[in-house]
Amino acid sequence: MDEIKDRVGSESKHVLMVPYQSQGHINPLLNFSKRLSSKGVRVTIVISIFMSKSMHRLTSTTLPDSIHFETISDGYDQGGFAKVDSIATSLSRFEAIGSKNLRELIQKYDSSDHPINCIVYDNVLPWALDVAKEFGIVGASFLTQMCGVKYIYYNVYHGLLKLPISSTTPLSFPGFPLLELKDMPSFVNEPSSYPAYLELVMNQYINIHKADFILVNSFYKLEDQVVDSMSELFPVLTIGPTVPSFHLDKRVPNDTGNDLNVHQLDSSANAWLKTKPTGSVVYVSFGSIVSMNKEQMEEIALGLKGSGFNFLWVITGLEKKKLSQELFDEMCEGGKGLVMNWIHQLEVLSNQAIGCFITHCGWNSTIEAMSLGVPLVAMPQWTDQPTVAKFIEDVWKVGLRVKANENGIMKREEIEFCLRQVMEKDIGKELRINAMKWRELAIEAVSEGGTSDNNINEFVKNIIRL
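The line above is the sequence of Glycosyltransferase; the predicted structure tokens follow.
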């Protein structure tokens, strides 16, 4: 009865989601929206004109009637956000045009039966919080990366960690393992190489103290000590993992997959996987953004070939051109390998044929794999990925990190070594046991009465326009 009363009380609540315009940022907010919808909240998600034309909708899922999309201009309707100008210019233009359109959107709904009560904004778009405060609307910052990375950025922003880091002594933070320079986010490790991105991640703290909520796509037991440390600085609510409910607690109807993709999905991998024994396939994917040089791509290919394991490698069109057809043919000879442009990752990760996942350690891929109990081979490239890789190997103990040489290249021998450890050795069994433990804890977090479920309920209860 109480659950019915809570749901009725939520029906008049309307949340506006404002994501950073890329797949890896939109889908977590969309998955969170489905959780809110299941609790009776109406949700409208803001998508740029370019992204609305570029993204493919997953046809196997049906969104609830209480989730809607609004399309606005970010100033790059033809070429895409951050494709034409520098990242700094793109963000500045998006702030000017996006904030104007956001105000008009709020005013539009003010004249309807569903006024906006709350704005949940991607943490790298702090101007959305300023707009929320103009209208007396609850503002919630949504952190799309792990708490640990955000804690490091907070220390840099407030001058507690000075850049560039000159000491070779490992760095210590509450709740962290000791971090060497190679374990730090790339914007901190090499600040001069990524000045615009460093500014982007620093700006999230400009007004975060004004946010009514700080929501994190993680779950408490995954980062308990770090969450406790951050909570001493500002209130943090873990509401993740934002993995579709079908793969976890199954409480949200029709929530089976990530609904939006920048590439057309190919489902033919399922038939191929059915022909492979349990735990025999190495799944390889580096996400929708990472681009590697030709040498690194060849080392991965030769490492896979040398290992002799079955593999499924997702390579987008431009990346595929870095490898010769001859090498592809050699790798895939005898049905050992399958190379595809884009697949439904959650379906693949949940397939019993998958033995491990070679990943760039993007946060979405990492938390999806852990939520499905899949061990990892970590090949971090940039941004938050080195820090995530450190936790994968030394804290969560669900994978091994491939060592890079003095030129930053992860050689075929190292890749093959890690694959053999995970797929054949006793350590691989331990990693698999640990991965399943984290899966169980992820399910516990989002199930009724779990930490994330309770935090979402707390958030919903306080969506009240001032």
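Note on the example: Confidence is low (pLDDT under 50) at residues 1-9. The CA atoms of residues 39 and 131 lie 26 Å apart.
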